[in-house]
Description:
Layout: E1 12-17, E2 30-37, E3 40-44, E4 47-51, E5 56-59, E6 65-69, E7 74-80, H1 82-89, H2 107-124, H3 127-148, E8 155-157, H4 162-178, H5 185-192, H6 196-207, H7 211-229, H8 234-240, H9 246-257, H10 261-268, H11 280-303, E9 310-314, E10 319-320, E11 328-333, H12 340-353, E12 357-361, H13 382-393, E13 397-401, E14 408-412, E15 415-419, H14 429-447, H15 449-452, E16 456-458, H16 479-495, E17 500-506, H17 512-523, E18 532-536, E19 539-544, E20 547-552, H18 558-573, E21 580-585, H19 599-611, E22 618-621, H20 653-662, E23 667-671, E24 675-679, E25 684-690, H21 697-700, E26 722-729, E27 734-743, H22 750-756, H23 765-774, E28 778-786, E29 790-797, E30 802-809
Parallel strand pairs: 9-26, 11-12, 12-13, 13-16, 16-17, 17-18, 18-21, 21-22
Antiparallel strand pairs: 1-7, 2-5, 2-7, 3-4, 3-6, 8-20, 10-23, 14-15, 19-20, 23-24, 24-25, 25-30, 26-29, 27-28, 27-30
Helix pairs in contact: 2-3, 2-11, 14-16, 17-18, 19-20
Amino acid sequence: MLEERNIKNSLIKLGFITESNTNSHFHDDIELLYVFDGEFVITIENDTYQMQKDDFIIVNATKQHNYTMTKDSLVGSFMIASSRIKEMTKQTNLVFWCNTVLDYNSSFEEIRRTIRDIVNEYVQDSTISMMRLVSKHYELIYLVTKNFLITNKDTYREEGLDKDKVRIEKITRYINSNYGNKISLRDLSAKLFLSETYLSKYIKKHFGMNFLEYLNNYRLNHAVDDLMYLDIPITRVALENGFANVPTFNKLFKDRYKMTPSAYKAKYRFQESSTPLTDTESLKVLERVEKFLSSTENMTQEESDGHRELLKVDMTNKHPYVKNWNRMINIGTAEELLRSDTQEYVLELKRKLNFKYVRIWDLYSHEMYIDINAKNGMYNFDKLDKVLDFLVVNNIYPYIELNIKPKQILQNIHKILINASKEIQFNSLDALNNFFEAFIIHLLERYGAKEVEKWYFEFWKEEKGDISSPPIDEEEDPYDYLRFFQIIQSNFKKYAPKVRLGGAGLSIRFGAKTLFNMFRTWKNESIQPDFLSFYCYPYMMGTLDGDRVNKTSMDRDFLKNYISKAKELLDQAEFNVKEFHISEWNSTISNRNYLNDSCYKGAYLIKNIIDNFESLDLLGYWFASDLTADYYDSTRLLNGGSGLLTKDGIRKPAYYAFDFLNRLGNNIIVKGQNYIITSGDYNEWEIVCHNYKFLSYEYFINSEDEVMINKLYRYYEDQNATEIELVLDKMNPGEYDIKIYSINTYYGSVQDEWIRMSCPSNLTLEEIEYLKRICVPRIGIQRMNVEGGQLRFSTRLEPNEIQYIKIIHKLR
Length: 812
């Protein structure tokens, strides 16, 4: 390890790894490893990751790890001072989840740019560069803490693990606070009110070494830092780190590092002066670092450019596209579609937002009276017929989830409000086969093959690791699911060969390895899906130290990166699918999150739909109205449900996001970071734009249901308005009307109108009707004349404002 030019007592110490491999070891500080060039293979406890250029990973404190790398590799080690980060974050236990090998995250590029800046200042080695280096240390720590720190709210402990977790934390905290003093197992056992014998066995079991070994390792780690970064005698290093005397310190140090403390200090102590390095190996490493910087200098500058306010567009370049966002909307359980108010809302979404399909599930609840295990084959489809009749009569196509999927309403990622237990199960494979044969025959007899072949049937695969299922199993066997799928498919295709059956409601958040295995296995089977479906919610899921972790992702491009990763895995598995669906997506799984009712949600939807305009076949929003999330606590006008409509049928900003997008023309001219421009017929053009604000760290450190409705401004990275100036080139001369439809906190937002009413609990019918009337877009119109082939105008967007702009060329 080459460590030079670091600043005494800095938050981060940078070194460059020169050894081709290392034995398993751990340290008390956090280590960020960055591959500047070559290949680097690291094993952290039981997991191995093969890293390539520009990959990086965080190794948490006290985690055993080792690595190997090729001779031509260049890897940087950023040692982050745990104790000082704990003081700043007020976290007693620091755990980070950051691994570019496994995840996609837009913040990765921010971290890469900051690391390049740190290395650049490190190489410069001047007084000014050292000052800037300190600021960059804080910036890097801010980015990794903001995006990847696991807090207590992110973890869910399995039953029986809480006691161990608390005890281990007490042990490590006691040693951290007292390692410099004379302490013993007897002292610690007295603190914990445990016998020495029991505690000794306990530490051996959970730490992999006895108490004295762990204590000495801890002391040696701190002693090494003192040798390298403090100009003090070795005697003082030994005594201040809790060693009884220098001979004992020397012996333990030599056993671990294969050299005496004085030899280690002479070999590795960094030079505080700025004199050029004379060591040949060190110079070669620094030359390679400078080569890396020169090769990435232009990229860093290009990536740092922000959104441009001036947009010049050639209006003659255009191509057709297919709208993927309004093909399907999630409605709820089959039983809910028997309600008159749900039917009313579905008809509005069909009529106003042009949704063609509605997705329903839980066909087999007790309330539907079907009895999937009927021994005589007499299944009662009466209630299901009423649901499907309503859809067919109104020219709406069903998107039917066939598996036994329970109704589940979540308050936050760890708390369930409603979890309808899956009391109904198929008794056997014969029962499954008999039911689905009778089911498809019934549908064909009632609605005809021509109609049924327009529908979608999805067979969901329950994945381990979600909030209501057992812990994650990376080696989950996909064959059980495929056997069930084959039974259903054989029955459906036997009677209706063109019927569309797919699945499996998959999610990358349960592990890329699991997903890849699923694709590879399915590819080699004779049964192939007519479409592949995914669920997409911005959460990271896994296990850390026996805890299940469900962490809200801070990736501002989560949906885009999710789709890219899924397609990459499909390509790797060589699994070709006819259609790619995301049958469920949202910014949150919580239905008690006031951001769902806000202007933020409208901007979020437009931003993500624009980002993924032509990347998949179907994007099914979760879900239509807040009626689905009704419960004992949902007595107010707004409860943070994720519907497009409130339970009273008032249109939310999210509704208008779809409304604005649906008004776009059939030919796309250009799309950018926060806008899309299309052309329609008869000399008309359409623009949708937004001023989406990403959420701040203040939001992510709280539970989703703790968002305060009167203080939403706290949860955004900034509150800046933006002004977009558009120069539309190659326009015909004449007069143009420009109509701007706006939704923001001043116009059209039911949440903000309700806040201005002081959030009353009970509203009269007259007051609800009033809100329905006023929660509409503001419309502004201006007329402009084009003479030189350019139409130039500007528009201002408040934070999280969305706009639809219609441009009409007046013919006379």
